[in-house]
Amino acid sequence: MKKTAIVLALTSVFTTNAMAEGVTGGVELDAKFVDGAAEYKADNGSGIKAFIGYEGFGASAKRKANFENEYNLNYTHDFGNIWLKGEYEFVDKKSRQQPANDQNKFGITVGGNVAELFDTSLRLRKDTDLNSNTLAPRGDIYRFDLAAGKQVTERVYLNAKVVGQKQNKKEAITVGDKNKDSIYNLELRATFTAIDNMIPYVEVGNEGKFGTDTRNTYGKVGVVFPF
């Protein structure tokens, strides 16, 4: 409940300061479904997130359905034709349904628009497990996200993404073949714009799992309420 209170407090702050010049913020709700059932594992992202931004600086707090918490700090600098974003995220897993290590995530993203045809970005990130749970092996993952997006109609923005991950600690692969330490995921999202006071989206994707050739196809629905 303590973490939920923090998120609600942040939401209240965002609402109070929504009219301040240059301040942006909001709340995002999302849910992920695999084979028609709600998926509440650590890697799915289902939950509620509150966020705020001011002059390139951003912060967010997310409470996930499995009682995991994510706290993110970031800064984006606009160079005109391209932009550069640095971020740090701490994942608190002490309250989650299954034991796991907390994580530090450091990332950098470069993006821009290609000849006014479509948006593109590339993010590189390092996800490092902390020694917060002695029962769970510590992972160390390199990750990249390559994305492209375009406003295809007045009301629909499409974004496609390829996500690659490399697990550097084979002992963290607890199922299947430990040599299968690289996976990739595919994502396609449609965001519905030009709607007052809300931004709904629908996402479909296909994702792999370390140690096996198993892949899952999923669906995700969400909505952002900007302030």
Kindly describe this structure.
By secondary structure, the protein is mainly β. The protein contains 1 helix and 13 strands; from the N terminus they run αβββββββββββββ. The chain has one helix spanning 2-16, and strands spanning 23-34, 37-38, 47-54, 57-64, 69-78, 82-92, 103-114, 118-129, 140-151, 156-167, 182-192, 199-208, 215-226. It has a 12-stranded antiparallel beta barrel. A hairpin with a 6-residue loop joins strand 12 (199-208) and strand 13. The model is unreliable at 1-19 (pLDDT under 50).
Provide a short characterization of the protein structure.
The chain is mostly beta strands and about 230 residues long.
H/E element string? HEEEEEEEEEEEEE
Structural class: mainly beta
Uncertain spans: 1-19
Strand order of the largest sheet: 1-3-4-5-6-7-8-9-10-11-12-13
Helix content: under 10%
Beginning-to-end CA distance, first to last residue: 24 Å
- The gyration radius over C-alpha positions equals 18 Å
- Give the DSSP E fraction (strand runs of 2 or more residues): over 45%
Largest sheet: 12 strands, antiparallel, barrel
**What's the shape?**
globular
Count of helix runs: 1
Keywords: Signal
Protein name: Porin
InterPro entries: Bact_OM_Channel_sf (IPR053713)
Signal peptide: 1-20
Write the layout of secondary structure elements.
Layout: H1 2-16, E1 23-34, E2 37-38, E3 47-54, E4 57-64, E5 69-78, E6 82-92, E7 103-114, E8 118-129, E9 140-151, E10 156-167, E11 182-192, E12 199-208, E13 215-226
Antiparallel strand pairs: 1-2, 1-3, 1-13, 3-4, 4-5, 5-6, 6-7, 7-8, 8-9, 9-10, 10-11, 11-12, 12-13
